[in-house]
Amino acid sequence: MTGKLTNRRILVGVSGGIAAYKSAELVRRLIDLGAEVRVAMTKAAQEFITPLTLQALSGKPVSTDLLNTEAEAAMGHIELARWADLIVIAPASADIISRLAKGAGDDILTTICLARRCPLAIAPAMNQAMWHNSSTQENLATLQKHNIHQFGPDKGGQACGDIGFGRMSEPDALAQEVCKCFETRALEGKRVVITAGPTREAIDPVRYISNYSSGKMGYALAQAAAEAGAHTILISGPTALASPEHVKCINVVSAEEMQEACMNQVYESQSPCDIFIASAAVADYRPIEIAKQKIKKNDQDTMMLEMVKNPDIVATIASQANSPLVVGFAAETQNLIENAKSKLAKKQLDLVIANDVSKTDIGFNSDNNAVTIITKEAITEMAERSKSQVATDIIDYVATYLTKTN
């Protein structure tokens, strides 16, 4: 399972119970699998394991108090709820299961759960008699109706000396269950080509024209496509990001280099391309001539730079008779939907992913995103969350669309 949770954000919630000691090992397992882990603890949990222990293991501050003025000055519980791709409460005591079923929000952990935009999972841990109590079972049924995942419990010896169901699952087993929450094989056997990052258009040997794209969205899409079972090729402009696991990465610099790589991978490869996703921020223009030597500053207050239009990669791919499913991106600062619809029609795309890059919290270089998926038939909004979670949702949408249109 090495790297299975790369780029995933997991919030581990710890409630009161002797099984809290296993939470430390769970945090270690999740980090070993590539996840970024944060921890939130109830007051009772702190009687069994210290926040300092979990802070040392996660490398992040532990959230313990809803009324912590320093953390809540920035609405800390809301930020954590937005940050997480998955919340796992382990152990989940009978008390917190009851409070979750009732929709309580009276401490840091339950408040985060109420404000979340991601899946929630619980790993029950309690005495076997408490587990079999009808109230507990009714509360679990309520959570199940709200699509809350349940991991375990196991049957075995308990701290009180009883033997039966209620023992929290072991950290390794819980880590496997967490991985399954992100598993989707919707693109099994498909070949997907994705572009990402900016392009750089040289002016002279030391200067170039580019943009603010970090490549994070494209890299997250490549990771999600690979996890969905696709043979994934990522054609990337210059970024500071590590190549996603199980993804073939082709590095380019200019728009012309990116176009050549795209044409090679989409049309000249022996394996047919099923989906082409153009998430790169390709420069629209490039200098007509590249100076062979560094351009020296002179006494003039202005400098003229003559530019020529770059190839339109996504339109070129979409215009071919044997084109794959083509997904474009529309990074806009105004008239988001109107401009995206225009791009969809003008470039003959199958789908357009529109996002408002004028918003600093979801624009270039941000770790979060909120997008609108536009087709000829529908407009679908996706609320703000981490780019990795948005990428997974986009890939799921594209896979479903591909199935419907084939």
Kindly report how far apart the N and C termini lie: 33 Å
Helices, by number, come to 14
Which bin fits the share of residues in helices? Answer: 25-40%
Q: Report the count of strand segments.
A: 19
Low-confidence stretches: none
Order of adjacent strands in the largest pleated sheet: 12-11-8-13-16-17-18-19
Label the overall shape: elongated
* Main β-sheet description: 8 strands, mixed
**Radius of gyration, whole Å:** 25 Å
The assigned structural class equals alpha/beta
Give the rounded overall mean pLDDT: 90
Q: What percentage of the residues does DSSP assign to strands (E)? A: 15-25%
Compile the SSE list and pairings.
Layout: E1 9-14, H1 21-32, E2 36-41, H2 51-58, H3 69-72, H4 76-83, E3 86-92, H5 94-101, H6 108-115, E4 120-124, H7 128-132, H8 134-145, E5 149-150, E6 154-157, E7 163-167, H9 171-182, E8 191-196, E9 201-204, E10 207-209, H10 216-227, E11 231-236, E12 247-251, H11 255-268, E13 275-278, E14 285-287, E15 307-309, H12 313-319, E16 325-332, H13 336-346, E17 351-356, E18 368-374, E19 379-386, H14 387-405
Parallel strand pairs: 1-2, 1-3, 3-4, 4-5, 8-11, 8-13, 11-12, 13-16, 16-17
Antiparallel strand pairs: 6-7, 9-10, 14-15, 17-18, 18-19
What does this 3D model show about the protein?
By secondary structure, the protein is of the alpha/beta class. The protein contains 14 helices and 19 strands. Strands 12-11-8-13-16-17-18-19 form an eight-stranded mixed β-sheet, sandwiched between helices. Strands 2-1-3-4-5 form a five-stranded parallel β-sheet, with helices on both faces. Helix 1 links the parallel strand 1 and strand 2. The chain starts with 8 loop residues before the first strand and ends with a helix.
